[in-house]
Design goal:
Number of strands: 4
Distance between the termini: 59 Å
Shape: extended
Number of domains: 2
Strand content: 5-15%
Largest sheet: 2 strands, antiparallel
Low-confidence stretches: none
Radius of gyration: 20 Å
Helix content: over 70%
Length: about 160
């Protein structure tokens, strides 16, 4: 096997194993990372970096960089798809039978309420916020990324 085919196999495996990890973990988060992204990265890094040390020791650092880049690319690509309303509209248009959507029907399916509910669901899944009855609370935890951002913004605001 040549090193180029090894790289191709790494990329191909990364893509298919990412699909498998999403089947297992769905969109579960430990903010800011989805479990599927993170475990897929570790799986591919361990597998291909180990094999590269055995079969291509001089190029093994390249495998490390390739897997880091794949993690970065797929993480942000999936984030764009999940969080961008424009991307959501394009996907919905493409999936419709005639590539058209009546705006009044679309607002019933996708509106501000749906957007806010999706974001709240992600924040709750990542354990960044807690809901008690009809109130939301920001978790005051040093591991909570939003809490750290809140502290930074509060500090900057006081300057």
């Amino acid at each position: 096997m040549t090193f180029h085919s090894f790289i191709f196999l790494n990329i191909l495996t990364y893509f298919f194993s990412l699909r498998a990890f999403f089947a297992i973990f769905k969109m579960k988060y430990y903010f800011p990372f989805r479990y599927a992204d993170f475990y897929n990265f570790l799986f591919n890094l361990f597998l291909f970096f180990s094999l590269s040390i055995i079969y291509f020791p001089k190029q093994s650092i390249i495998i490390l960089f390739i897997n880091l880049n794949l993690f970065y690319i797929f993480f942000h690509l999936i984030n764009m798809i999940v969080t961008s309303p424009r991307t959501k509209l394009i996907i919905d248009l493409k999936e419709s039978k005639k590539n058209e959507i009546r705006i009044s029907e679309y607002f019933k399916k996708y509106n501000c309420r749906v957007i806010v509910d999706n974001r709240i669901k992600r924040l709750k899944t990542s354990k960044q916020i807690i809901q008690k009855k009809n109130y939301f609370f920001l978790r005051k935890n040093k591991k909570n990324f939003l809490y750290i951002i809140f502290l930074i913004f509060s500090f900057i605001e006081n300057i």
